Amino acid sequence: MDFSYSEEQRMLADSLRRFVDHEYTFAHRRKSARNGIGFDRDVWSNLASMGVAGLTIEAQYDGFDQGVESYLVVNRELGRGLVHEPVIPVTAAAAILSAYGTQEQKAEWLPGIACGDSIVVPAYSESGSRYELDSVATVALPAEEGYVIHGEKTVVWHAQVADAYIVSARLGSENGDIRLFLVPRESQGLDLVVYPTIDDQRAADVTFNNVRVSADALIHTQGAGDEALRVCINHGLIALCAQALGAMERLIEITTDYLRVRQQFGKPLAAFQALQHRVADMLIQKELAGSAIYIGIQGLSEPDASKRERMIATAKLAMIEAARFVGQQAVQLHGGIGMTDELEVSDYFRFLTMCDPIFGDHDYHAQAYADAMEE
């Protein structure tokens, strides 16, 4: 897999860098995060017009039909600006619709996703599931011309702005096969409890009180809904890793600039060798994470399940460790003001901290790697 940027990818990266630098400023991000929604429709439309939402969607559905390596190109730039729009969950949902959706579902939803008119996000996590995709208590009972879904999903990322959810549920009974359903947000009996996360984004607990959906809401995963959902999670996970890489890059730049300006004992902090070494360690950790993310991207198309699991877990583990180290070092090198609300440093630190629990934390992926090694 060639990770060098093509001319088109370089142009896209440059466009996103300019957009983040000039339009998605620190002040704009703070205002959007504190408006109670955490979402800016104009920003989302601009991102979609640049191809972000439809990056890997097939051209016949108005997408750009790019390979998965483009996740790094786009999300690295978005991570530098801590863009709060629902790029990652939409990427995950588009991946599963592209792989398992019926022709009718693709025709109905993928063009809208690609142009930014429709937002679809996965809703799979449940209370006590601890990232296990087969830990599902939500039930979908066959009913006249469709199904009735009853249950609750927790920490559904950007649920408040979604037009539909990809919901995992057991078909027929609490012991039935896990299947996936496309559930429109306006469905009767669907309730949301929205709350902010520590990085100023939004999530929600979504309750399905006997929500009725039509028969064509069923995504055809041939009974292996948890395996299909793994595809969705893996694509979202790699996009998240790429955003974390961009955030680490920008945070190191911010910290380096601060050390050059801040004076102590008549000289800039950057002149002290001990602090130079700490910045060098931050760079090393960031580069290690970047190399592991390349492995993870290759893992998305790896046919061997055990090897694929190891490659994806490697990317997430390296990212978590690097994000923790870079975030903590940046705060410490800024001193007491590093965690104040006045500086961007605290925003980057909180985002990098939240990267751990999303799509499986460090312990989960360490165990997943160990299990894959035994297979």
Automatic annotation (TrEMBL):
Domain Acyl-CoA dehydrogenase/oxidase C-terminal: residue ranges: 228-367
The cofactor named in the record is: FAD
Residue span, Acyl-CoA dehydrogenase/oxidase N-terminal domain: 6-116
Q: Could you tell me the keywords of this UniProt record?
A: FAD, Flavoprotein, Oxidoreductase
User: Family, per the entry?
Assistant: Belongs to the acyl-CoA dehydrogenase family.
What this protein is called in its record is Alkylation response protein AidB-like acyl-CoA dehydrogenase
Q: Name one Pfam family in it.
A: Acyl-CoA_dh_M
Can the keyword Oxidoreductase be found in this entry's annotation? yes
The residue range of the signal peptide is none
Listed PANTHER family: ACYL-COA DEHYDROGENASE (PTHR43884), ACYL-COA DEHYDROGENASE FADE28 (PTHR43884:SF20)
Q: Which domain of life is it from?
A: Bacteria
- Can you give the residue ranges of the Acyl-CoA oxidase/dehydrogenase middle domain? 123-210
